[in-house]
């Protein structure tokens, strides 16, 4: 089932008097006053990046991962499928199927730690946007179609174009020389593959993967067809739990670096995390929590409430018996 983050934010519009100085404004030129003689600007609720309202309609690119707008002085990377990525998100971006395997192992360990080992070897493939959409069309069962799908858990035999070799960033910050290869999926069990969109930061890729792994787990455990909000909701709960574990291990490794007796945090095998990556983790968590969609947002909130109250195991048992979250 497709997974996406809906943009649940309300971009705040703020009016101030024309003579006031706006601190940290994103636009480097003078902001015009509106008909009432006031300066109007918008701000992203998480990053608090301020900009003039007309940038929402003048084609100013936003990063497809963190949603921040492209500042005038830096160029975002062009992912060739209409998506743009800011340079800070590019820093930890996962660009091909091979590069994603350590992260896949990490998520498998995370599921094992929850006593939810996925026994079958499900292939994980990184794909371009078009390949993801084609695979979605190739699935027989009616999926929940969303405007921006970033991951899929497949159950049909089909051939998927997977990214074999990471692209280079060429002139004009465009990705170039991407090598793809057709990959034939064989049906050995109810799940044939998990597909994830390439080019997203490690923490976002991982949270999408944790979500899709939960679809796979439910299917392989023989759960009946659940209502969309229960299924997507519990998958979002797992994505959120994984993000939380990552944020904790990033904080843990920062403490570990100043104290010799502290144990080595799990994230250390993924390389050092920057303060921005930690902030990104908070942002992706916040995105899940504040999602306004009835399926993903309300589903997550109901599922998270149940897990906090009864624990994950009892919540899953209740879903298996009744098809619903316990109240
Ligand atoms: Zn899903
Ligand atoms: Zn970004």
TrEMBL record:
Ranges for domain Protein DA1-like: 113-322
Highest taxon of source: Eukaryota
Any one Gene Ontology molecular-function term assigned to this protein's record: ubiquitin binding
InterPro entries xref list: DA1-like, DA1-like_dom
Membrane-spanning residues: none
UniProt protein name: LIM domain-containing protein
Organism: Actinidia rufa
Taxonomic path: Eukaryota, Viridiplantae, Streptophyta, Embryophyta, Tracheophyta
């Amino acid at each position: 089932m497709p997974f996406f983050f809906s943009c649940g934010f309300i971009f705040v519009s703020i009016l101030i008097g024309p003579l006031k100085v706006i601190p940290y404004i994103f636009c480097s030129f003078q902001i015009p006053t509106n008909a009432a003689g006031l300066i109007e600007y918008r701000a992203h609720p998480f990053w608090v990046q301020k900009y003039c309202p007309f940038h929402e309609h003048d084609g100013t690119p936003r990063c497809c991962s963190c949603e921040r707008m492209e500042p005038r002085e830096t160029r975002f990377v062009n992912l060739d499928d209409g998506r743009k990525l800011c340079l800070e998100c590019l820093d930890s971006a996962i660009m091909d199927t091979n590069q994603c395997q350590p992260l896949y192992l990490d998520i498998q360990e995370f599921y094992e730690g929850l006593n939810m080992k996925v026994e079958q070897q499900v292939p994980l493939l990184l794909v371009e946007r078009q390949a993801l959409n084609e695979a979605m069309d190739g699935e027989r069962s009616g999926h929940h179609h969303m405007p921006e799908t970033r991951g899929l858990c497949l159950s049909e035999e089909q051939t998927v174009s997977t990214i074999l070799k990471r692209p280079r960033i060429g002139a004009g910050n465009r990705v170039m020389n991407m090598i793809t290869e057709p990959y034939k999926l064989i049906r050995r069990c109810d799940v044939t593959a998990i597909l994830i969109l390439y080019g997203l930061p490690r923490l976002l890729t991982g949270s999408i993967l944790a979500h899709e792994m939960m679809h796979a787990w439910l299917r392989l455990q023989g759960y009946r067809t659940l209502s969309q909000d229960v299924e997507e909701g519990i998958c979002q709960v797992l994505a959120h739990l994984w993000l939380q574990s990552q944020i904790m291990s990033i904080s843990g490794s920062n403490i570990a670096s100043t104290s010799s007796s502290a144990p080595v945090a799990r994230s250390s095998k993924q390389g050092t995390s920057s303060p921005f990556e930690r902030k990104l983790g908070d942002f992706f968590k916040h995105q899940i929590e504040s999602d306004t969609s009835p399926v993903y947002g309300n589903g997550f909130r109901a599922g998270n409430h149940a897990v906090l109250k009864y624990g994950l195991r009892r919540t899953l048992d209740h879903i298996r018996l009744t098809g619903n979250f316990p109240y």
